[in-house]
């Protein structure tokens, strides 16, 4: 997907490790990309890529060319790029580029070999320690100023964009396929690099190693990232990647060495299928769930669950009663869009959600606790393709454990927001409002819509019925999604207008998701197993067989002939329809246009809310994915998706 300029491309890259007079260490890398056709240029200045018009065209063309890109992500990119603005933090160059003066940074190699780099942050001069050739110079002694502070250090001027540059304290410099001796002699050197200790960026959901083992015939080195979370986000070149310095230790020819390395790590993470993309959050979410609901009982866990001194309580009993029923549902896996909504609502305002990852565990526990109780009240035997929690643990234990999960928020908020009483109060109020709304929606859902459907069949007027069914979906799913997104926006410091717009959008996403969930009842749903297989998580017409009034059935009022509508309702009304009859009715609901009406309604809710939110957000990759989430919620599992 990421734009790579066609034709002859030339890179000049400067990597610097600097130390201020006060001893602070700085890492600075600047890239100049020059395309032979003159179509596009990019420069990296402290984590920002600057693009001219040609580069912007290349980005748009790359989005269209990428056949593997998820269609909802592509559609969101089209919308955001159509206005001519880049996806932040990319920026537009101030004018026409000539030479290596990009208007925001200038790179000059003077006749005496001095390398001069000028940026808005300061000026640096590098004196070559080793020979300067057509491929640059592997070691410079650098002095100058950055942000008004005097700095000095070392640098590497490279006529490439290679992923690895190492300065060892014994004078050797090492790249992927070439080393340079202290005397400046080039020596062929093939190195292997194996990463470990992965970290997932909550801004892009790309995963990177933060520690590496580097080996060759003479080298055995360990590289530990100085800036393990320094992800450089851009639409040009290879897209988002980890970009920073690492400390080096190990041996060379059996002798101890230390040093510094520059690493440019490009993840093998394409946005192929949207659900798989959201699934990248699963490991982080599950780790946070386990921190709150651990695998094994303990005194600490019991006290944390109880919020009081747990002396005398049987820890194993507490674990079996409160933790295991909820973990039973959590461990079966889910779609993950609700947890994404929470961190995205923080990230899209430019605030890192890393300090607030415990909220991801809270969202999953609250949602799973709700499912546990919902399955009891609906009498559902299965959840996520496995026996429902009440089937395994009993009804009483399931109800108690499910409702207890709602209080996970109270265990986390004081820890992540220890110094802001006002913000904590708003978070609690937002959460409790969603819990209240959810219980209202569930109350109406338990009562059902049979009387309203009877009235609609008798009169041919489905407006009251649709309002009632829609209201249940909004209160049960839309309002919780709204609450957790608003909490993310509040943490980011968004103003009231933006918090409300975020809430409206994610409420619409939740409503659309449930409308399409009702639609998927017409065809059944499958989900992945832990072993990589596929299992049925919802059978065809499961809700219809239970006598539930779903959105397709409600939309069928006015679309089916009155006598046929009455016949359909008579078959499913009492929850006694057989498989064959339900399959026939499901096909009829598609054929009469009820399914299309559901898709159109879901899309309308999302698009209307997005039109208000979109101008209030900066153009970022998170914004792209948030928009794609709306497309996915409204149109998932549909065959004809935007190309």
UniProtKB/TrEMBL annotation:
<dbReference type="GO" id="GO:0008299">
    <property type="term" value="P:isoprenoid biosynthetic process"/>
</dbReference>
<dbReference type="InterPro" id="IPR008949">
    <property type="entry name" value="Isoprenoid_synthase_dom_sf"/>
</dbReference>
<keyword id="KW-0479">Metal-binding</keyword>
<protein>
    <submittedName>
        <fullName>Polyprenyl synthetase family protein</fullName>
    </submittedName>
</protein>
<dbReference type="InterPro" id="IPR033749">
    <property type="entry name" value="Polyprenyl_synt_CS"/>
</dbReference>
<dbReference type="GO" id="GO:0046872">
    <property type="term" value="F:metal ion binding"/>
</dbReference>
<keyword id="KW-0460">Magnesium</keyword>
<dbReference type="Pfam" id="PF00348">
    <property type="entry name" value="polyprenyl_synt"/>
</dbReference>
<dbReference type="InterPro" id="IPR000092">
    <property type="entry name" value="Polyprenyl_synt"/>
</dbReference>
<dbReference type="GO" id="GO:0004659">
    <property type="term" value="F:prenyltransferase activity"/>
</dbReference>
């Amino acid at each position: 997907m990421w734009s790579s300029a066609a034709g002859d491309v030339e890179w000049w890259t400067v990597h610097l490790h600097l130390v201020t007079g006060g001893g602070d260490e700085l890492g600075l890398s600047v890239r100049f990309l020059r395309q032979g056709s003159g179509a596009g240029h990019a420069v990296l200045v402290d984590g920002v890529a600057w693009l001219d018009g040609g580069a912007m065209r290349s980005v748009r063309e790359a989005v269209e060319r990428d056949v593997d890109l998820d269609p909802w992500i592509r559609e969101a990119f089209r919308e955001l790029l159509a206005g001519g603005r880049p996806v932040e933090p990319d920026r537009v160059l101030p004018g026409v580029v000539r030479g290596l003066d990009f208007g925001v940074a200038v790179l000059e190699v003077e006749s005496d070999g001095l390398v001069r780099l000028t940026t808005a942050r300061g000026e640096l001069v590098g004196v070559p320690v080793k020979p300067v050739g057509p491929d640059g110079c592997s070691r410079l002694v650098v002095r100058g100023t950055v942000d008004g502070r005097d700095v000095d250090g070392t640098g590497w001027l490279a006529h490439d964009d290679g992923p690895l540059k190492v300065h060892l304290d014994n004078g050797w410099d090492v790249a992927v396929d070439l080393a340079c001796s202290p005397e400046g002699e080039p020596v062929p050197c093939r190195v292997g690099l194996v990463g470990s200790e992965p970290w997932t960026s909550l801004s892009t959901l790309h995963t990177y190693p933060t520690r590496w083992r580097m080996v060759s015939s003479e080298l055995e080195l360990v590289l530990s990232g100085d800036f393990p979370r320094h992800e450089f986000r851009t639409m040009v070149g290879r897209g988002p990647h980890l970009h920073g310095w690492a400390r080096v230790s190990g041996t060379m020819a059996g002798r101890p060495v230390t040093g510094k390395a520059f690493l440019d790590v490009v993840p093998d993470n394409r946005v192929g299928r949207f659900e798989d993309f959201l699934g990248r959050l699963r490991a982080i979410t599950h780790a946070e769930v386990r921190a709150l609901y651990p695998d094994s009982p303990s005194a600490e866990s019991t006290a944390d669950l109880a919020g009081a001194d747990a002396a005398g309580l049987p820890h194993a009993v507490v674990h079996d009663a409160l933790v295991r029923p909820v973990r039973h549902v959590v461990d079966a896996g889910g779609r993950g869009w609700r947890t994404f909504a929470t961190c995205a609502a923080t990230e899209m305002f430019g605030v890192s959600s890393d300090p607030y990852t415990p909220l991801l565990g809270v969202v999953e526990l609250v949602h799973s606790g709700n499912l546990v109780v919902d399955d009891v009240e609906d009498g559902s035997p299965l959840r996520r393709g496995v026996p429902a929690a009440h089937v395994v643990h009993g009804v009483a234990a399931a109800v108690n454990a499910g409702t207890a999960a709602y209080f996970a928020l109270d265990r986390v908020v004081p820890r992540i927001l220890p110094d802001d009483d006002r913000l904590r109060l708003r978070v609690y109020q937002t959460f409790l409002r969603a819990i209240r709304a959810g219980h209202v929606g569930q109350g109406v859902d338990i009562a059902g819509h049979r009387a309203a459907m009877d009235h609609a069949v008798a009169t041919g007027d489905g407006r009251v019925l649709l309002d009632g069914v829609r209201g249940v979906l909004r209160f049960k799913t839309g309002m919780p999604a709204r609450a957790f997104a608003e909490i993310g926006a509040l943490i980011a410091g968004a103003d009231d207008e933006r918090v409300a717009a975020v809430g409206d959008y994610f409420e619409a996403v939740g409503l659309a998701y449930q409308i399409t969930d009702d639609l998927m009842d017409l065809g059944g749903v499958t989900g992945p197993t832990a072993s990589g297989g596929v299992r049925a998580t919802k059978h065809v017409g499961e809700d219809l067989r239970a006598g539930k009034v779903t959105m397709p059935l409600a939309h069928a009022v006015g679309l089916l002939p009155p006598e046929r509508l009455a016949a359909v309702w008579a078959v499913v009304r009492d929850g006694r329809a057989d498989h064959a009859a339900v399959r026939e009715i499901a096909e009829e609901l598609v054929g009469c246009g009820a399914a299309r009406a559901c898709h159109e309604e879901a899309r309308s809710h999302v698009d209307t809310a997005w039109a208000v939110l979109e101008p209030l957000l900066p153009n970022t990759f998170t914004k792209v994915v948030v928009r794609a989430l709306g497309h996915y919620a409204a149109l998932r599992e549909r065959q004809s998706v935007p190309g």
